[in-house]
Amino acid sequence: MTSRESKKIANAAPFFDETDIDKVVEDVRQILRSKKLVLGSYTKKFEEQFSKYIGTKYGVAVNSATAALEIVLKYCNVENSEVIVPANTFIACPNTVIYAGGKPVFVDMSKDSFCMDVDDLKRKISSKTKVVMLVHLGGLAEPAMEEIKEICEKKGVIIMEDGSHAHGATYRGRKVGSFGVGGCFSFFATKILPTGTGGMITTDDPSLQEFAEAYRHQGGLGGEGKIEVFNQFGYDSMMSEVTAAIGINQLSKLDEQIKIRIRIAEWYRKGLKRLSKVRPIPTFENSTNVYWRFITTLDEKIDRDMVRSTLRDKYNIDGGMLYPNLCHLQPIYRNLGHAEGECPVAEKIIKHQLTLPVNPYMNEDDVQYVVDSLYNIIETS
Predict the structure, then answer these.
(1) What values do phi and psi take at 295, rounded to 5?
(2) Are 18-107+114-252 and 254-378 the same fold in CATH?
(3) DSSP 8-state code for residue 281
(4) 187-204 b/e with 16+ CB inside 10 Å = b?
(5) d(CA 79, CA 74)
(6) 71: CB partners within 8 A, 6+ apart
(7) How confident is the model at residue 2 (pLDDT cuts 50, 70, 90)?
(8) Cα–Cα distance for residue pair 347/158, rounded to 1 Å
(9) Which residue from 87, 118, 247, 360 has the highest number of Cβ atoms inside 10 Å of its Cβ?
(10) What share of the chain is helix, strand, coil (3-state, %, to 5)?
(11) How far apart are CA 346 and CA 106, in angstroms?
């Protein structure tokens, strides 16, 4: 293996330098000295800074995006109601609907954006629909935001957002996570803003903020002398102070990282012009893409799994997929009566979808190496 091939190009990597590490270590020292490991000053600071960045009045830190989604769904009281969920998303999205007592209804995806298909949404929204869950997939702010908002307003349906791939992405200049009743974000280790684990709810609704703060601590009222007073059911979904400290550090570098990711995407678009069998995700006039992954679609005659394995085994490149299986075709949802044919566009395209790595340590030579490797596999085979 050459020195070039010995350098792994990973899908994701946290954006730390030695100065960041020193700062986080000092923050951890301060946390340990304070003897306060949860619900302390670092959590409060992270909530305030992140919500300000998104453009909402409030932020509530939790231990995962799954917790964030479930809390917002509980607040919306979706029990015995339907919730529209994209078929092409992480399994936590429909799962949390069920945890909250609702029924997920899967909507097909746009072949261009990989986000929600508006025509299928129109077909599947009903009098039983309580919430539409927008997922800003792969780093792209939902391009059909305005149309979806109009549909939901006419039907009296609530919009919530999953921005787990799209920290900092904007629609018409406004950041995702500020459009619905609540925005839900993941800080998982592979995300654009990684803390290891963790999540956040962003909202302008003071009642949701109050509900979420109570729910994350077993439903406790909170406040001085009331931390153990419970007037509702909840769960243990608190973020640790150490996680919050890492989040504060990563948030300070988020805009810089987004610029790097957009530059990497531009290099990909330039390089991929010579690959006739690889179609990059288009750009959209009103929606920015912060490129959690660079999404491509391969020619139908290309064996996507062969390409992935060759990239990994021969070239040391993490070629990936958004999700290997659509939610409604997972065994657990097949057992609930879902089947092929519900979302035909997604079912067809997902077999040919390949994501290319985007991480903040990549340079133009790395991108060119990925493109050249793809060319060797696809165009010369």
Answers:
(1) -85, 135
(2) no
(3) P
(4) bbebbbbbbebbbbbbbe
(5) 8
(6) 60, 62, 182, 201, 211, 212, 215, 216, 237
(7) very low
(8) 27
(9) 87
(10) 40, 20, 40
(11) 11
The answer, yes or no, to whether residue 60 has pLDDT greater than 50, is yes
CB 143 within 8 A of CB 286: yes
Q: Is 31 within 8 Å of 241 (Cβ atoms)?
A: yes
**Residue-wise pLDDT tens digits, 275-316:** 999 999 999 999 999 999 999 999 999 999 999 999 999 999
Contact 247, 50 (CB under 8 A): yes
Paired tokens of 232? 């509702």
Tens-place pLDDT, residues 333-348: 999 999 999 999 999 9
Q: Which residues of 51-70 are buried (b: 16+ CB within 10 A; e: fewer)?
A: bebbbbebbbbbbbbbbbbb
DSSP state string for 188-208:
BTTSSS--BS-EEEEES-HHH
Q: Which two tokens stand for residue 238?
A: 């608190």
Q: What is the pLDDT of residues 156-196, one digit of tens each?
A: 999 999 999 999 999 999 999 999 999 999 999 999 999 99
Tell me, rounded to whole angstroms, the distance of Cα 71 from its chain centroid: 17
The three-state secondary structure class of 43 is: helix
Residues 43, 242 contacting (CB under 8 angstroms): no
Tokens of 214: 């109570």
The answer to whether 75 touches 206, Cβ cutoff 8 Å, is no
The CATH number assigned to the domain with range 254-378 reads 3.90.1150.10
Q: What is the pTM (predicted TM-score) of this model?
A: 0.94
Spell out the residues 6+ positions from residue 147 whose beta carbon is closer than 8 angstroms to its own: 118
pLDDT of residue 44: 97
Domain boundaries along the sequence of the chain: 18-107+114-252, 254-378
3-class state of residue 164 by DSSP: coil
Architecture of domain 18-107+114-252: 3-Layer(aba) Sandwich (3.40)
pLDDT tens per residue, range 216-250:
988 876 655 556 777 788 889 999 999 999 999 99
Q: What values do phi and psi take at 140, rounded to 5?
A: -95, 125
